Amino acid sequence: MRNVLLLGASGTLGKAVTEKLLSETDLKLTLFARHATDVYTEGKATVIDGDATESDTLKDAMVNQDVIVCMVSGEQLPEVAKNIVACMDSLGKRRLIFMGAVGIYNEIPDVMDGEDNVDNNPDQVPNRKAVDIIEASDLEYTVLRPGYLREGQESDYVLSFKGEAANGYFTSIPSLVNLIQNLIEDDNLYRRESVSITKDMR
Q1: What pTM, to 2 d.p., does this model score?
Q2: How far apart are CA 16 and CA 148, in angstroms?
Q3: Contacts by 149-157, CB closer than 8 A, 24 or more apart
Q4: CB 3.0–4.6 Å: which of 25, 84, 145, 178 could bond 102 by disulfide?
């Protein structure tokens, strides 16, 4: 049985990932968020109220984990990324799945809608800075770059990789959740790669 730490477990994506993993796998989950106990109760998973910018709290939560999944967002994401790398290095942890955002490399074609590229949208700057920190680490990371989350089908997606144009700026929640599950279960899947998962809008 694998131990998985979900950071940002109380958000929209975190709740969807938690629901799927609890219902379809025998993974041992630790659900970590600032107000995790407002959303979850202890039972099938360990629930921790914590701030991913606080080293001691985050490090304690990582101790027995095999995989760390970061679904945190916001202006503090670069600080969270630094903290994750430092804590994982100090504990000898290797596998990280980290949520960025499509557009951080200016990969959304202008003909599609380049407004969400980092050069055009200051809100993308923390996402880019955080991913730069992860990519500069020696961790066995996979960076995921979804777009705006929408309902949809699990099969409704196209993958593109760093250096390639993105196929859209929307992402179906089921497709992203399914990819996260696959990454948790296979440490070599898209290892040390940055992957965009979006609906095909071409």
Answers
A1: 0.96
A2: 15
A3: 149/12, 149/13, 149/173, 149/176, 150/199, 152/199, 154/178, 156/199, 157/197, 157/198, 157/199, 157/200
A4: 145
| Encoded tokens for 74 | 């916001």
Query: At 77, which helix (H) or strand (E)?
Result: helix 77-91
Q: C-alpha dihedral over 179, 180, 183, 184, to 10 degrees?
A: -140
Q: Is the dihedral of CA 51, 57, 59, 63 positive or negative?
A: negative
Grouping H, G, I as helix, E, B as strand and the rest as coil, residue 49 is strand
Residue 64 is classified by DSSP as T
Give the pair of three-digit tokens for residue 166: 């993105």
Burial class (CB in 10 A: 0-12, 13-18, 19+), 157: buried
Give the Cβ contact number of residue 155 at 10 Å: 9
Q: What are the tens digits of pLDDT across the range 125-180?
A: 999 999 999 999 999 999 999 999 999 999 989 999 999 999 989 999 999 999 99
DSSP state of 66: S
On whether the CB atoms of residues 9 and 50 are closer than 8 A, the answer is: no
Structure tokens at 202: 């071409």
Q: In this structure, what token pair is assigned to residue 23?
A: 């219902």
Instruction: Kindly give, in sequence order, each residue whose CB lies less than 8 Å from that of residue 135, ignoring residues fewer than 6 positions away.
Output: 141, 143, 194
